[in-house]
Amino acid sequence: MILLQAANAAANGELARRMVPGAQILISVLPMVTIIVLGIVAIFYFKWEHQKRMLIIEKGGTPPPKKFNEKLLLIGLLSLFIGIGLTIFFMLQTGVSNALLGGIVPLAAGLGIITYIIIVRLRKT
Predict the structure, then answer these.
(1) How many C-beta atoms lie closer than 10 Å to residue 62's C-beta?
(2) What distance in Å separates the CA atoms of residue 111 and residue 90, rounded to the nearest whole number?
(3) Under a CB-based contact definition with an 8 Å cutoff, are residues 88 and 103 in contact?
(4) How high is the pLDDT of residue 81?
(5) Does an H or E element contain 43, and which?
(6) Which has the closest alpha carbon to 7: 97, 94, 111, 124?
(7) Mind listing the pLDDT tens digit for each residue in 25-53?
(8) Residue 59: exposed, middle, or buried by beta-carbon count in 10 A (0-12, 13-18, 19+)?
(9) pLDDT recorded at residue 12
(10) Which residues of the chain are modeled with pLDDT < 70?
C-alpha cells in the first residue's frame, strides 16, 4: 500500500516539489559526476594496459591477444543495470520527467553494447 502511494505521488510530481533543493541538485549532478569518474577510470585503465603491453614487447615477449568482447560485455552489463537502477530511482523521486534521462542514457548504452556483442558472436558462428 505504501509503495502504491509513493508511486502515485511520484507520478503526480509531488515528490519533486517536496524535495529539498540539495536533493534536487544531487539528482541532477549525479549522472554527470558518474560519467566523468567512469571516463577517468577508463582512461587510466587503458593507459595501464598499454604500458603493460609495451613492457612485454620491450622484454622481447609477445603480448597476449586483446579480449574486447569480455570487457565490453562487462561494461554493457554494468551500464544496463546501473541504468535500470537510476531510472527506477529517478522515476520514484520525480515521476516522469527529464530527470529520467540520467537513467535511460546508461540503460540504452548498455543495451547497445550487449546487442553489438550478440551480433558479433552470431557473425562468428
Answers:
(1) 7
(2) 19
(3) yes
(4) 92
(5) helix 21-58
(6) 94
(7) 777 788 888 889 988 998 998 899 899 99
(8) exposed
(9) 55
(10) 1-19, 68
- pLDDT for the residue numbered 31: 82
Q: Which three cell numbers stand for residue 75?
A: 561494461
User: Could you give the angle at the alpha carbon of 119 between the alpha carbons of 46 and 78, nearest 5°?
Assistant: 45
Residues 60 and 66: their CA atoms lie apart, in Å, by 18
H/E segment holding residue 30: helix 21-58
Identity of the amino acid at 55? L
C-alpha grid cell for residue 91?
Answer: 522515476
Angle at 63 between CA 57 and CA 68, to 5 degrees: 135
Read off the C-alpha cell for 58: 620491450
Give the structural domain span for 75: 2-124
Residue 39, all three cell numbers: 571516463
- pTM (2 d.p.): 0.50
What's the distance, CA 2 to chain centroid?
29
